[in-house]
């Protein structure tokens, strides 16, 4: 479910002829993954204080932060930038309380909305934490002096290694995000930022761009990826990893570009974009384990209305359906394995109870073993009855929707 906080603030745009001469004719945004995982991330308070000082002296209009998971961290940043960024919103969701999304703005936030991703990983993988954080997309509708900006902040499922274990989850999240952006923003300027955990040549990234109609601000200005890679993760400037030779990060291919600022080219024109927020001045560490991305936009004089939703290309649709088929098969396989384990636990429980009734083992031992098996079998049953069925149903739903779209794709 999503919710909106309505406002009576005026949303009329300034006249087109005043745009270029208006002192606020540009919108400067920043996206940064703050690396604020409690108990794991280092120097959270120190890095946050440095970030606040940097923001106070900056000319950013809107800032989207990710991985601000706990309330004290959000409060620390909100209080630290007060006086410049008078408007902010920290989104709450999930079992742990927050997906880690914080938006700071110089201008009034007149509406907010949050949509959790329907597929968010596995609850049993508590050491990954994505499911427990309740990741999703947060939207702040911001009243800029020249136009209304629908600002989306998100953090997709992490990859956890070189494999593609969560590829189908990230693909579904990218599809959901594109659909949500296209349907929730009408005649407003649109900016979508965040840690997408996707390489720019992955099929999920193509799906998001094609279905949302948004453009990559960095690639809009630097189309050649070879000369301008725009790397944001696992690079020497973010020196928090134990790497003896930081130069090897780039040479071995582990450095990647996964943080983005997307925008609607119908209403905005990107005039500047760069990777920023590396090492903290005067310190031996960086602001985060990610680089930030900053973009500067000008409001177009004659904005064109965007279509409600776009269709992916034929090539993208086919690749997406193939990945979804693999994800669906994995879900069926996982369900069968859990079902077999549940049957085994149930049979063992019956054996333990029978042996206990025959007084072949001490009652205390049989009671402990039976209680353990009851707990395990109950957990597996609930997993099968709730999570597995929901996961399979969602995969089928998204696959059916994309199958329909693929029929009209070109």
List keywords for this structure.
38% helix, six-stranded mixed β-sheet, globular, disordered N terminus, single chain, alpha+beta
Counted beta strands: 12
User: Beta-sheet strand percentage?
Assistant: 15-25%
Quaternary class = single chain
**Backbone shape:** globular
Task: Report how far the terminal alpha carbons are from each other.
Answer: 33 Å
Q: Sheet with the most strands?
A: 6 strands, mixed
Mean pLDDT: 82
Radius of gyration equals: 24 Å
Elements, N to C (H/E)? EHEHEEEHEEHEHEHHEEEHH
In which order are the strands of the major sheet placed? 3-4-2-1-12-11
**Residues in helices, as a percent range:** 25-40%
Unreliable residue stretches: 1-21, 243-251
Tally of helical segments: 9
What structural class is derived from the secondary structure elements? Answer: alpha+beta
Short summary of the structure?
By secondary structure, the protein is α+β, with helices and mostly antiparallel strands.
Characterization of this structure:
- With 410 residues, the protein is α+β, with helices and mostly antiparallel strands.
- It has nine helices and twelve strands.
- A six-stranded mixed sheet has the order 3-4-2-1-12-11.
- Helix 4 runs parallel beside helix 5 and helix 5 packs across helix 8.
- The radius of gyration is 24 Å and the shape is globular.
- The N terminus is likely disordered.
List the helices and strands and how they pair.
Layout: E1 26-36, H1 44-56, E2 62-68, H2 71-80, E3 87-90, E4 102-105, E5 109-116, H3 130-133, E6 136-143, E7 148-155, H4 167-184, E8 189-195, H5 203-212, E9 215-216, H6 217-221, H7 248-251, E10 259-263, E11 268-276, E12 292-299, H8 314-357, H9 363-408
Parallel strand pairs: 1-2, 7-8
Antiparallel strand pairs: 1-12, 2-4, 3-4, 5-6, 6-7, 8-10, 9-10, 11-12
Helix pairs in contact: 1-2, 4-5, 4-8, 5-8, 8-9
């Amino acid at each position: 479910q999503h919710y909106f906080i309505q406002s009576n603030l005026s949303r009329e745009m300034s006249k087109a002829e005043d745009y270029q001469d208006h002192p606020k004719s540009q919108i400067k945004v920043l996206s940064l993954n703050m690396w604020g995982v409690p108990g794991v991330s280092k120097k959270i308070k120190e890095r946050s204080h440095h970030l606040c000082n940097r923001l106070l002296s900056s000319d950013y209009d809107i800032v989207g932060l990710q991985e601000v998971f706990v309330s004290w961290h959000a409060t620390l940043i909100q209080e630290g930038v007060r006086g410049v960024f008078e408007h902010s919103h920290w989104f709450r969701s999930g079992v742990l309380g927050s997906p880690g999304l914080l938006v700071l703005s110089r201008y009034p936030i007149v509406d907010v909305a949050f949509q959790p991703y329907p597929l968010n990983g596995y609850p049993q993988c508590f050491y990954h934490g994505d499911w427990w954080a309740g990741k999703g997309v947060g939207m702040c509708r911001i009243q800029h002096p020249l136009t209304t900006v629908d600002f989306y902040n998100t953090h997709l499922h992490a990859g956890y290694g070189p494999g593609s274990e969560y590829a189908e989850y990230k693909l579904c999240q990218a599809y959901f995000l594109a659909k949500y952006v296209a349907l929730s923003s009408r005649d407003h300027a649109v900016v979508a930022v965040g840690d997408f955990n996707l390489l720019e040549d992955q099929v999920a990234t193509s799906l998001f761009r094609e279905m949302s109609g948004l453009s990559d601000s960095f690639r809009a200005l630097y189309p050649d990826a070879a000369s301008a890679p725009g790397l944001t993760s696992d690079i020497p400037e973010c020196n928090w990893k134990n790497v003896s030779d930081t130069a090897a990060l780039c040479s071995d291919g582990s450095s990647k570009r996964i943080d983005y600022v997307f925008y609607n080219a119908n209403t905005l024109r990107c005039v500047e974009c760069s990777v920023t927020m590396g090492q903290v001045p005067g310190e031996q560490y960086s602001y985060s384990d990610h680089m930030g991305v900053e973009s500067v936009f000008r409001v177009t004089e004659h904005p064109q209305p965007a279509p409600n939703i776009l269709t992916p290309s034929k090539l993208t649709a086919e690749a997406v359906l193939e990945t979804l088929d693999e994800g669906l098969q994995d879900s069926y396989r996982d369900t069968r394995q859990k079902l077999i384990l549940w049957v085994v636990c149930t049979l063992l429980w019956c054996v333990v109870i029978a042996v206990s009734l025959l007084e072949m083992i001490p009652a205390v031992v049989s009671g402990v073993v039976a209680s353990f098996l009851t707990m395990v079998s109950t957990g597996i049953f609930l997993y099968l009855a709730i999570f597995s069925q929901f996961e399979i149903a969602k995969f089928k739903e998204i696959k059916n929707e994309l199958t329909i779209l693929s029929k009209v794709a070109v």
